[in-house]
Design goal:
The complex is a heterodimer of chains A (188) and B (109).
Chain A lengths: L27 E4 L4 E6 L5 H8 L10 E4 L2 E7 L2 E6 L5 H4 L8 E4 L4 E7 L3 H6 L16 E6 L2 E9 L2 E7 L3 H15 L2
Antiparallel strand pairs in A: 1-7, 2-5, 2-6, 3-4, 4-5, 7-10, 8-9, 9-10
Chain B lengths: L2 E4 L4 E4 L4 E5 L13 H8 L8 E7 L7 E7 L5 E6 L16 H8 L1
Antiparallel strand pairs in B: 1-2, 3-4, 4-5, 5-6
Classes of the chains: A alpha+beta (188), B alpha+beta (109).
């Protein structure tokens, strides 16, 4: 009898050439570790209950985010959030018992992330993204859905020189390549 | 590159994040089954094409995803103002900033 074939889930950027890792001296570009993600939509009256269930206060102001123990909630729109859990806990299970009306979709494998860090990180991202990343406009903790070259991404500033670029899985090689090029340009 | 103010994000964002979705404040007739073909065509197909201020719907599709309304000048491409969907049509003087599109473009940068 033939052995059953079981599909192995592989990170999309696992095949990226190691020489590409690192970007440049001023901006390091690395694939992020696997995480669970949730696309969450709800009306304002459900925010409190959902925040309690997730253990992180869903932000209600534009471009804001909230974090707690490796779990991040990013404001995408007036009724829309992206929740990321770096510890890979099951976010759908966390919301299973919530009695308020909301829409939650597990997008852990739809999205993937690229981390850009270093003094030239903002310049590397701005090589393909028109968003203003100066400290006053896009401070640490700011998050926004915007464009990166020809694709859409969610940009999240995790620290003064650290950015997380969330994009769709099938666009990841493009996003990674354009960020590496941007990192090289930022070093010139 | 044009900067467009999204009333939901409360910020000027690049035009790359937006899509235009046609004229705003088109009201669907309540008695649509009873109106004449001409009246239906007027509602369904015919749009203003003014040289000057136009009220349009826009969508911040690569941002917050929301539809909103904008007042734009069709000659200079200048966005006079934007406001949330559902808000009443703002009363603007017909002759608000006209002419010198090039000078306005320079001033916007």
């Amino acid at each position: 009898m033939a052995d059953p074939v079981i599909a192995q889930r592989r990170p999309v950027l696992a095949g990226a050439h190691p020489s590409l890792y690192g970007g440049s001296a001023v901006a390091h570009v690395t694939p992020a570790k696997a995480a669970t993600r949730l696309s969450l939509r709800a009306k304002p009256d459900a925010v409190a209950a959902l925040s309690a269930a997730l253990g992180v206060d869903l932000p209600t102001r534009p471009k804001r985010s909230a974090s707690s123990k490796g779990r991040h909630a990013l404001w995408l729109g007036p009724d829309e959030w992206l929740v990321i859990d770096e510890a890979e806990t099951d976010l759908m299970a966390a919301l299973a018992g919530v009695g308020v009306l909301h829409s939650a979709t597990d997008i852990s494998h739809r999205n993937t992330a690229v981390l850009v860090s270093g003094p030239g990180a903002a310049a590397a991202i701005n090589s393909a993204c028109p968003l203003d990343l100066t400290d006053g406009v896009f401070p640490v903790g700011a998050a926004a859905r915007t464009v990166l070259g020809k694709i859409e991404m969610v940009l999240y500033r995790t620290a003064a020189e650290d950015y997380r670029v969330e994009c769709w899985r099938s666009f990841a090689p493009y996003a990674f390549g354009i960020l590496v090029e941007g990192a090289e340009d930022a070093a010139l | 590159m044009l900067l467009i103010r999204c009333p939901y994000c409360e910020e000027d964002r690049s035009e790359l994040e937006f899509r235009s979705v046609g004229e705003a404040h088109i009201v669907r007739p309540d008695n649509i089954a009873e109106i004449s073909d001409e009246a239906f065509a007027e509602y369904f197909f015919l749009r203003d094409n003014p040289k000057g201020l136009i009220y349009e719907r826009w969508r911040h599709i690569h941002g917050c995803g929301r539809f909103f309304n904008a007042v734009r000048h069709t000659v200079s491409d200048k966005f006079v103002m934007t406001y949330k969907a559902g808000e009443p049509k703002p009363d603007l003087p017909a002759a608000t900033p006209v002419a010198q599109p090039l000078a306005q473009e320079g001033a916007a940068k």
